[in-house]
Amino acid sequence: MEDLFKKNSEFVLPEYRFNEMKSFVNGGLEDFSVSRETNKFGIPLPRDPKQVSYVRYDALFNYVTVSREQGFRDADTQIIHILGKDIARFHAIFWPAMLMSVEYRLPDTEFVTGFFTVDGHKMSKSLGNVVDPVQMVDDYDRDAVIFNLLYDVSIGADGDFSVERLANLYESMLIGGRGNLVNRVTSLCKKYGITS
Questions:
Q1: How far apart are CA 7 and CA 32, in angstroms?
Q2: In what order do the strands lie in the sheet with 109-113?
Q3: Which residues constitute the domain of residue 89?
Q4: pLDDT surpassing 90 at residue 162
Q5: Which of 17, 115, 118, 159 could form a disulfide with 129 if both were Cys (CB 3.0 to 4.6 A apart)?
Q6: Same domain (yes/no): 74, 151
Q7: Where a domain ends, among 113, 143, 159?
């Protein structure tokens, strides 16, 4: 893992997340079991039917199966794995180690995202603050929602989402600012006889 990290300076993005992974690896790694005896759900191991594969071990290889079926593992295809910060260690350290152990191609980049909160709180059904992205797109348009997320949240960082903020941004920047710009450019084109 240390060699992998040295050879690929953008294996984990953003950089501060990469530093977290390097620090963990530098602290020393230990073997981990790929099976569990106490779990009843899982694929039984042929050598010991009392053991089932550890769900995180077995689930990760589904990426390989799906990506092969979709042609994503071609040598000329860049593989960017997007994951949440809560699973970064597993996906940016253990998953690549598993792939290297069976000589499979690694992702080119592990991009670690932050969490979205709503009004400063983690989204939760019990709190009733879950945001329905389909409803947001229906209400404001897909591009407006994407613009809001990209404008308000630094890449890789946590971000607080607010319907009021989206509405304000939509009105002031997209309709007001950008709409005004388009209107002015269109008027100037008409005035000076510019056509496309």
A1: 25
A2: 12-13, 109-113, 80-84
A3: 1-113
A4: no
A5: 118
A6: no
A7: 113
